[in-house]
Amino acid sequence: MRTGSEPSTARSPLRMRLWLSVWGMVWAVFGLVAFVATGRAGWATACGVLLLVTVTDLCVVVRHLRQGPHYQPGRDIPPYEPDRGGRSRPGR
């Protein structure tokens, strides 16, 4: 929900997540190869699981980047007014 207090130059952290996923993937592959070469199966398994997590995150980020700026209003859409109707929120 837009409240109107967002900065007009706000950016999505998707590109940062993309590069962090690539960085994590490189290190996970390096660790996997190194631990397999030294015969440490437990650490190799941990690096393999980490590799799966980073590849999954990379796929999700690429999918979101390709979808484009959907559900985000442009500059010609005025901000929504904050809800001041006095409705109580659960947990407050």
From TrEMBL:
<feature type="region of interest" description="Disordered">
    <location>
        <begin position="69"/>
        <end position="92"/>
    </location>
</feature>
<dbReference type="InterPro" id="IPR045924">
    <property type="entry name" value="DUF6343"/>
</dbReference>
<keyword id="KW-0812">Transmembrane</keyword>
<feature type="transmembrane region" description="Helical">
    <location>
        <begin position="18"/>
        <end position="37"/>
    </location>
</feature>
<keyword id="KW-0472">Membrane</keyword>
<protein>
    <submittedName>
        <fullName>DUF6343 family protein</fullName>
    </submittedName>
</protein>
<dbReference type="Pfam" id="PF19870">
    <property type="entry name" value="DUF6343"/>
</dbReference>
<feature type="transmembrane region" description="Helical">
    <location>
        <begin position="43"/>
        <end position="62"/>
    </location>
</feature>
<keyword id="KW-1133">Transmembrane helix</keyword>
